[in-house]
UniProtKB/TrEMBL annotation:
This is RagB/SusD domain-containing protein. GO terms for cellular component: cell outer membrane. It comes from Bacteroides thetaiotaomicron dnLKV9. Residues 349-671 form the RagB/SusD domain. The lineage of its organism: Bacteria, Pseudomonadati, Bacteroidota, Bacteroidia, Bacteroidales. InterPro entries: SusD-like_N, SusD_RagB_dom, TPR-like_helical_dom_sf. It is found in: Cell outer membrane. It comes from the Bacteria. Residues 22-237 form the SusD-like N-terminal domain. Keywords: Cell outer membrane, Membrane, Signal. Belongs to the SusD family.
Amino acid sequence: MKKITKYIPTIILTLLCSCSDYLDIVPDNVTTLDIVFNNRNTAERYLANCYHFVPDHGSVKRIPGMGAGHECWFYTTNDSHFDNEVSFYIARGLQNIDAPYANYWDGEGGSNLPMFRAIRECNIFLDYVRDQHKVNDLTDSERKRWIAEVNVLKAYYHFFLFEHYGPIPIVDKALPVSTDPEGVKVTRMPVDQIVDYMVKLIDDSYKDLPPVITMEATEMGRLTQPAALALKAKILLWAASPLFNGNKDYANFRNEKGEPFINQEFSREKWVRTAEACKEAIESAETNGCQLYDCSMDMSYSQDLPEEIFYSMNIRQTVTERFNSELIWSVGKQGTNELQNLSMACIVPSLQQGSGNGQVTGSILQSRAAGVYAPTLETAEQFYSKNGVPIDEDKEWLTSGNYDNRYTTRQVTSADKYNMRTGWTTAVLHFNREPRFYGSLGFDGSTWYGNGRTDVNDLNYVDGKYGRNSGNKWGFNYSITGYFAKKVVYYQNAITQSSQVVYEYPFPIIRLGDLYLMYAESLNEATEGDNNVPEEVYTYLRKVRERSGLKKGVLGQTEDIGDVRVAWEKYSNDPTKPKTKDGMRSIIKQERKIELALEGHQYNDLRRWKDASKELSKSIKGWNVQGEIEEDFYKVTTLFVPRAFTTKDYLWPIKKQDLQVDDKLIQTYGW
């Protein structure tokens, strides 16, 4: 099997190639650390060590955002071919206090990365590099940059814990090895205090970071000013959101003094502060060359693509094109080899099981095109119609009966040949949708641009029914919903009869489209009154929507639907929705679900919005993938009925044993 990693070498990758061994051989004593920080080369290895703990954000198993929600589902938790006993166990309501899943507090439960150890490594690094008598061959500018990088990393590691646990301890200093047991005990701090601490780390450091990486061959992936400022904006977004801003559900979650961990008074000023931080981050990013990506920037033949494929490819390439213009920060390959293997459909005619002799075999299909990371029916329904409004609001869908009959079938004509295979019979739900729908999802009868075929008149396609090439043909490694996560699969991968090539890419931790939507959300929430939506809210939504093909003059559209006011007035049965704060809140939430689909955001967004109690208590549904013919396949099937998502599920529990070791710790509310 041939695997290619088409990826710019970085200092982080280079230095981390033996990082796990390095971490194992550095004992916690001053003598050895004095040697490590005696010269630039070994100190630089320790800098790489500090980056080493950044989680693989593209891991469907270890990152809760990728697998703990209802955006995608899996056919099993564990069999001899596939397992996900981490995030998927959380999705199934199995989180617990004895052995918590995705336990980043301790680095257990499948997380493999103890965040407090990451913070400790950062503190050790800072203690030594701040000392002007250490690392004597380090220049002053380099010393400042390294210190700034690790300060921002320390803020990031605190934030990663904060996202999951809420109130956490602040670990600002590395404790000496001689510290007694009582001295190493920590306490959880109030949310507002943690947020101020993380923000201060960034504010005190970001100006010493480079505005842009100029030495691309050796430094891509390292922190920049735009990345630090975007992280700050994300931290403040969480602090302003309903989960942590006046959340009365946690009124009894208090410290040993009886003080609430989460401020019980709502503060609009937190949204104002977030909007200012988002604007600062956007200006920094754009000033330094960051812009919304479109595939004409990298695909030399994109000018020849029909509009249907061009705009659907925009969203795929935004995620999978390495270090493209939209990426603000990512580190390493972020688990994208496995992610693509788990998302890829066995598409035809490129993938047909042969008899060996260099051809694709069953084992290759199982490992390289498993298709188990399966978007749910709810995910498919959340995308807009071709008119840029929700399908349950689109007057054309409602008056024609298409919405009520969306689970029935119809035959594909040549008018839809670039999105679906002509002559195929598929669900009404799959017709007349926006380009991001076709760029993000594969489904029975859909085309699949790339994977060895870029002739728009001879495209690969999905054959997803039972026993068919893209469907359940072995009883394992298949999509349980009938949908495939096309968005995260790079189009130049080539899983063909004679070659199996997967190009890894840096999965986005923060990208510009996310930042634009953060800004729109915070501006809307910062506004006083319900009828004073700032013009900039519409402006930044327009930027995201138009890049996706929702604009006048594209795909026959005669209205200026990049502007949500125009789209809703013309096509929605709720035409005044964009004119109110509440209406725009709903629109922005759906825009985030669509634009950032399959990127690990929705689960966390639902939590910070306090929408998870409703949304994650719904049944999981898909098509009947055991069906061999259209009449059987296109039946909505309930795959799982979850227990109710309650207040305690919003935040992670601390392992029970940790509470026994440290009696100053207080368990997360409800656990």
